[in-house]
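This follows on from our talk about sequence and fold. Can you supply me with one protein entry, sequence and fold together? Could you add the entry underneath, on a fresh line?
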Amino acid sequence: MNNDNLINGNNQLRAKLNSANKQYYEDLPTYIRGKSTFNRERDVEQLLLDMLHDLIDAQSNGQSAENYFGKNPQALADEILQTLPKSFFKLSN
């Protein structure tokens, strides 16, 4: 999947979230994309899509985004970015 497909998939899946989970989740891409200067865009977009799938599963089991991921989406984004491989070149796949 290319970056555009990942982003489009992410946008379509957000419709499955309830309003509280959607509000929480929509902060994550903002924080992660804004701070991912040295990460490959494809890695970032795949991660966001994977997290959204996880949140949809958690929601179907009655969990809120705050219960599943924690209360602070910005702190979560910072932790996640530390785990992604760094790239000093902007590479697209």
Q: What stands out?
A: The chain has one domain: 3-83. The CA atoms of residues 4 and 45 lie 9 Å apart.
